[in-house]
Design brief:
There is one protein chain. Helix 1 packs antiparallel against helix 4 (97-121) and helix 2 (35-52) packs antiparallel against helix 3. The protein is of the alpha/beta class. It is globular and about 100 Å long. Helix content is 52%, strand content 10%. The protein is built from 21 helices and nine strands.
């Protein structure tokens, strides 16, 4: 099997590099023989690893078995090399160098095993992808006054005004009663999800989450319970301090120079640490889930995942207010991915489904916001979203330099993709192609470097024609075609600075 050969070749290559580095380091700080003996020792180390099966990482069923196999084989190999030096190299004087080299190799090989196990052998959940809205042509989002003008004027504008004026709860309820809204409005004064279910108002048409969502420890559950308690078309009103407003507050309240240090530390504590799996429990133990940092895109995405449609959003008096309407049940067929590595469902050879790896370039929960973005921003050439503000600043850099596609090398190692070939497509975009191009596409593997960069087409029709020419040529002369297209793409990217829009 090709992917097994490629995988094992890479493991052996890295193991040889680990051995050479470890023996060189031990010789530098200790007393090992000359360099050619060290190269021979590294080769012997790798050969023993291959023959013993130590490097067949995919065969280990338990982590402890991998540790036991690596440590035991490496200990025996280190002992063998000590005897080898002692009896075949008369000038060698024993010191702790062999122990240093063996210990370092053990640490590197165990790290290599865990990295491969986590990234290569373990399939991370598929990245959620909403079916795009295909009938959106013009940019711009209609005002909610055009959608629900009567309800907006009588009910929701009053609610937002009351919230923004920071009235107390008693005054708030009195205002709702005067507006004849108290019998169908649930005011939730807690961020605990169960508080929504325990509210006395039966079948409310409007739920107001009075406290800031920054203090909601289980925000997804809170929004889901809010959805369950509302009828179709019911409304939810919420507010929070988004990261941009929080940053502005720090800038105003701290001296120049210090404010940037505080912003960095705040970002590190509230945005980076909670997304590190082993640090997440500590973060919530310290903060108790309060004063969380929530990005605007993240909040809107959570609302859409909870089954809401955002009909109004605004910033007032240092707070971000959102009014959303229930459209469907919460999405439960997924597992939200907040990590840096994502796995996209794509069409491969013979029409089989493959998981394509990429680095995340958007804010978390951006994937659930697809319908809202299509309505708000519209589309540009080639069916892509225009002015997509879900992309992070780092994500723009990764996309510009193609570093976001670096994890596709995992697919190349697996054998799902080749170096030069058509771009892997989602089922939706695959369905937009003509029948002829669809049939040609599934006859070959997708590639890391698509013919797009050789021809630089703009419209969908031009992209299809570019791929059709490539596929026709590839099916007749595979190696020659890939060689020619590789250098065409190289010339456009490196010499002419062409980029994918």
């Amino acid at each position: 099997m090709a992917f097994l050969k490629r995988e094992r070749i890479l493991i052996v290559f890295f193991d040889l590099w680990f051995s050479l580095f470890s023996f060189w380091l031990a010789r530098y700080f200790g007393d090992l023989p000359r360099w050619y003996w060290l190269v021979l020792s590294a080769v012997i180390w790798v050969i023993i690893g291959i023959l013993s099966g130590k490097l067949q990482f995919g065969e280990y069923k338990r982590v402890r078995y991998a540790w036991l196999g690596i440590i035991s084989v490496d200990a025996l190999t280190g002992g063998f090399l000590y005897l080898f030096y002692k009896y075949f190299i008369p000038t060698y004087a024993y010191d702790n160098s062999i122990l240093l080299a063996s210990g370092l190799i053990i640490c590197l090989e165990i790290s290599q095993y865990h990295f491969i196990r986590k990234i290569y052998y373990r399939n991370i959940p598929y990245f959620y992808e909403e079916t795009p809205i295909t009938d959106v042509i013009e940019k711009g989002l209609h005002s909610p006054l055009n959608i629900q003008e009567e309800i907006w004027n009588k009910d929701l504008s009053l609610v937002t005004n009351i919230l923004q004026n920071k009235q107390d709860v008693k005054e708030f309820k009195r205002s709702l009663k005067e507006a004849d809204l108290s019998d169908k409005t649930a005011i939730i004064e807690s961020t605990a999800p169960e508080s929504v279910l325990r509210d006395k108002v039966q079948a409310p048409s409007l739920i107001i989450l009075l406290n800031k969502l920054n203090d909601a420890r289980y925000l997804n559950t809170l929004l889901s319970y809010t959805n369950y308690c509302l009828p179709d078309g019911g409304y939810a009103v919420c507010h929070c301090t988004i990261t941009s407003l929080h940053k502005q507050r720090i800038m105003r309240q701290t001296p120049v120079g210090i404010n940037y240090v505080i912003i960095f530390l705040d970002y590190l504590f509230h945005r980076i640490i909670p997304k590190i799996s082993f640090m997440k429990p500590l973060y919530y133990w310290i903060t108790k889930g309060r004063n969380r940092a929530i990005h605007r895109v993240e909040l809107l995405g959570k609302l859409y995942r909870a089954g809401f449609e955002v009909i109004h959003e605004e910033i007032s008096l240092g707070e971000f207010y959102v009014i959303a309407s229930k459209q469907k049940a919460p999405i439960r067929s997924d597992k939200p991915n907040t990590g840096t590595l994502i796995r996209l469902k794509r069409i491969g050879k013979d029409g089989k489904e493959i998981g394509v790896y990429k680095f995340r370039t958007m804010y978390t929960y951006s994937e659930y916001l697809q319908p809202y973005i299509y309505k708000q921003e519209g589309l540009c050439k080639g069916g892509k979203i225009a002015d997509d503000y879900r992309v992070t600043p780092i994500g723009r850099f990764l996309r510009c330099t193609w570093l976001d596609e670096l994890p596709m090398l995992i697919n190349w190692i697996r054998g799902d993709m080749k170096l030069v070939g058509i771009r892997p497509l989602s089922l939706h975009y695959y369905s937009l192609y003509s029948k002829e191009v669809q049939e040609l596409r599934i006859k070959t593997k997708p590639g890391l470097l698509p013919p797009f960069y050789a021809d630089m087409p703009e419209t969908l029709d031009e992209i299809q024609e570019s791929e059709r020419r490539y596929l026709k040529a590839y099916l007749s002369h595979p190696a020659a075609t890939d060689w020619r297209y590789f250098w065409k793409a190289f010339r456009n990217i490196v010499l002419r600075g062409k980029r994918s829009k």
